[in-house]
Amino acid sequence: MIEKKQSFQQFYNVGDRSLSQNPEVLPLTGKSRWSKLSKFSPVSRETFRKLSLNGQAPQPERMGVRCTFYDNQELHKWLADPAKYQAQKKK
After folding, report:
1. What is the total count of domains within the chain?
2. Residues of the domain holding 76
3. What is the pTM assigned to this prediction?
4. What are the DSSP E strand ranges found in 1-91?
5. Please, what sign has the CA dihedral across residues 69, 71, 76, 82?
6. CA dist., res. 47 & res. 42, Å (int)
7. Rounded to whole angstroms, what are the CA distances from 76 to 17, 43, 47?
8. Rounded-to-integer distance, Cα 73 and Cα 58, Å
9. How high is the mean pLDDT of the chain?
10. Which DSSP letter does residue 66 get?
11. Percent of the chain, pLDDT > 90?
C-alpha cells in the first residue's frame, strides 16, 4: 500500500483562502501591542515612540517592564489623521 502525503494546505483546506476573504483588522475597542499595530502604522516603531512622547500619537499604557499596550480607539483616531492628532492628557 502506497501512502500519499498531503500538504498542510490540502489537509486543512486553507489553500483556497485569500487575504481579501479574511482581512486582518485592528479591533475598534480594546488594547493592542506594537506587533499587531505595526501592520497598519505608516511610521516605524521608533518614530511612533517619538510621536507618542511629543503627544502626536496615542500614549502607551505599561503593564510591567516589557509589556506596552495602546488603546485601539485612540489608534483609530490617529490612523484616520496622523498629522492632526493630539493625544489626550492623562489625569
Report:
1. 1
2. 28-85
3. 0.71
4. 31-32, 61-62, 68-71
5. negative
6. 10
7. 27, 14, 17
8. 9
9. 81
10. S
11. 64
